[in-house]
Design brief:
By secondary structure, the protein is an alpha+beta fold. It has four helices and six strands; from the N terminus they run ααβααβββββ. The strands form two sheets. The protein has a three-stranded antiparallel beta sheet with strand order 1-3-2. The chain has a three-stranded mixed beta sheet with strand order 5-4-6, with no helix packed on it. It starts with a helix and ends in a 10-residue tail after the last strand. The mean pLDDT is 89.
Amino acid sequence: MIKIEMQLKKLGIRPTAMRILIFQFIEAQTSAVSLTAVENHFEKSDRTTLYRTLKTFEEKGVVHQIDDGTGIPKYALCTHEHQSKKHNDLHLHFHCLKCCNTVCLTNHQIPQITLPVNFIPENINMLVKGICDKCNNYSK
């Protein structure tokens, strides 16, 4: 818990008890989580507090938001060093059509994209949809 407190402080986030609990919850998940999943886990907590915590985490680079095509934003912990205030998690995301889980494929980077002059990228999201390894019935 002290490690989480120090990490949050380093990013300019006051490490309240709720923020630490939300961080631990997201860290323990094997797939990205929605605000609803966080709300369901912390059912006695104020919805606004949970939302604001996720937004603060996103702004400070603790989590990144994933658009997996479901219309419901998902959040996953960032795994890179926090060198700059503005960062991008330039890795693939995979959305399973069977179990509906969305996972970060951090070992698979998005290739470098060259844009025309005067085009400024703000966000890059590469999503692969299919059947995850847990749902795939094929066994070797």
